[in-house]
Every structure is written in structure tokens, then in C-alpha cells.
Design a protein that fits this description.
alpha+beta, Rossmann fold, elongated, binds adenosine-5'-triphosphate, ATP-binding
Amino acid sequence: MPTDKDILVSFRGVKKTYDGENLVVKQLDLDIYRGEFLTLLGPSGSGKTTCLMMLAGFEFPTSGEIRLDGKLLNRVPPHKRNIGMVFQNYALFPHMTVAQNVGYPLQVRGVSGEARQRQVREALAMVRMEAFGERFPAQLSGGQQQRIALARALVFKPQLVLMDEPLGALDKQLREHMQLELKALHRQLGVTFVYVTHDQGEALTMSDRVAVFDQGLIQQLDPVGALYETPGNAFVASFIGDSNRLQGQIGLREGDRCTLNLPGGHVLRGVRVGEATPGQAATASIRPERMRLVDASDAAKAADAGNVLRGHAAGVIYFGDHVRLQCDFTEQPQCFVKVPLDTPALASLAPGQPVALAFEPEHLRIFS
Ligand SMILES: Nc1ncnc2c1ncn2[C@@H]1O[C@H](COP(=O)(O)OP(=O)(O)OP(=O)(O)O)[C@@H](O)[C@H]1O
């Protein structure tokens, strides 16, 4: 369990409005631990960048407090915060060489001569760009420029590095490669990274913990695995990974479980997330890989052990190693499951035919 000593940054009761009317950050209470890789993930406009900008010092909170190492930051200007930054459009200075770009933060901090040269060499070595010191930014690829931006952010050994969509301009292959590099660099340096993205794959690949933002609020803050396995609400369930949604009414409530009555007559058992007052409207979610296609004779057995949903096949798409089966259920959004190729019930399946999907109650999360 982390203690107060492990906290590098804390946001307390932070709110932000740009126009004096709408709060784009409604209430932010967040502790960032020393050495962690924390990602702020959320759809466009959810307030992630604003939070990062307040931490960097380019925006100020309308109310609340931000502390770095216990010290109140609210009115400390950006260059006094000892924070490194890499942004998608945080361009390198075009008229300076790579070495001059990387040396710039040292220059403004009054580091000169041999000490500056040595630190620039070390920073370039860190991002494996030692051989490029004399080039100009225009003579580098996008990925190389981003490495230099990273070296420039790290050269003065900040205790905290902020990154806002730093890989957004790169193509998919390079982006995935750089994600692994960033993660390795983080492990090697032990510096605290705070990373903003709207790409959930990127967040899951790199982070220790992820704060999922929506509408100016953190919806859930958890390690990557917990976020995927135990989403705290329907938004997080649909934003992280694939999930199927089912809508109905709460039937019975029993401890940490409850039942969901679907309009078509199905009664499903699942994990209760929320109050679950009987009769209340609720949304449930289930990961496609947690559902099994079963044939009619197995469906009765499966229903005794867990849940079975009966509907009709809407589409069958072959993916080489599995089949993606789309299913229609009465008054529900379409669901899909990933069916292994050796599943017996798959043999003669065609669109329009009846299907039965079985799943365990512990994998159905019922949000109310
Ligand atoms: N300087 C500004 N002046 C006025 N409104 C702003 C300003 N910056 C951001 N906003 C508004 O604040 C809200 C949150 O924006 P923010 O950039 O924090 O979201 P985001 O989650 O980072 O989105 P994106 O992924 O698109 O960058 C948006 O509605 C945006 O239009």
C-alpha cells in the first residue's frame, strides 16, 4: 500500500472553467505516485489535457490545490516546476541542431561548457540518437524527432515528465514501437511519467495505472488489469476493450450479486455494481471472450450453472483463428462473441438461425 511519502503529485478539489460557466474539470482528487507510469485516458474534450496543463503550469485551477512533493504549485510558473514535457506538436527549434535543441533546457538553467555537453550526450544515448547531434530537425524522421523531444524533456533530470499524445503524429507501426521504447525507458529511469491519450490500446500497453476521464471527471482510476476485469461503470466497460451491453431492470438483489430482467423474458444473474434497487433500470456488460456459443442440448445444462441468452445469428465473419459471431436478442443492442473454430455448435451456423450464448454470472457486471 503506497504511503504519503510515495506521493509525488496530489490534486485536491481541483476545478477548472475557461469561460466562467462550464466546468471542464469538475472535481479532481488524484494522487500520483513516485516512479509510476500514469495515463489519463478519455474521449476528446473530457478534460485530460486541461489537467496536464494545470500540472505543467500553463493553466491555473479555478479552485482547489495542486501539490508537487508536498509544495503548493498553484502560482509557481512552468519553468520553476522542474517538469519535463513532450507534446504532439511541441516542435523542436528548426534552426538549432539536435544537440543544441537537447541542450536548450540546460542553457536556460545556466548549465554550460563540458557539463552541458556531457549531459546532452547522455540524454541522446538514452534515446539511442548519439550519432545525430549535428543534424537539424528537418533531417530526421517523425519518430526520430519525437525521440529528440523526449531527450530534451529528460536532459535536466526532471522528477516528473508530462506527455500529451506524443505519438499521435506517427504511423501505427512506429507508434507501437515507440510505446515499447517509452515503457522501457520509464522502467530504466524510474522517473514519474504522466501520459495523456485517447487511445485505450496505448494506455493499456504502457501504464501502471490509468485514470479514465469522461465529462470532466475521473470515472475510474485503477491498474490496467483491474480496469479491464472490473470496470466500475458502463462508460468504462465500453471505453476499455470490447464489451457487449444488455439493458433491463433489476430483479432481485442478494449480497454482491443481483439479477437483471431483460425485456425478452431472460433473467440473468451477475455482479452488482451500484445500488441495484429492484425495478430500477440497469445496464450490464460482458466481454465477448467470456461468452460461449452452445448448442440447444447444452444450453439447458448451462442455464443451471449460469446464464444463457437465446437469440438469432445475425452475421458470421471468419477471422482465421476464430469466428466473430454477431447475435440479435429481443430489444437489445447487437452482441458479438469470438467463437473458436472447433466449437461444435458452429458447424452449420448461418445468419437467421437460433443461437444460445452461455456465460458465468461473475463475468456479467450489472451497473445501476
Ligand atoms: N484554452 C481554452 N479555452 C477555452 N476552452 C478550452 C480551452 N482548452 C480546452 N478547452 C475546452 O475544455 C474542454 C476540455 O478540453 P481538454 O483539451 O482538456 O480535453 P481533452 O480530454 O484533452 O481532449 P483532446 O483529447 O481532444 O485534447 C473542451 O470542451 C475544450 O473545448
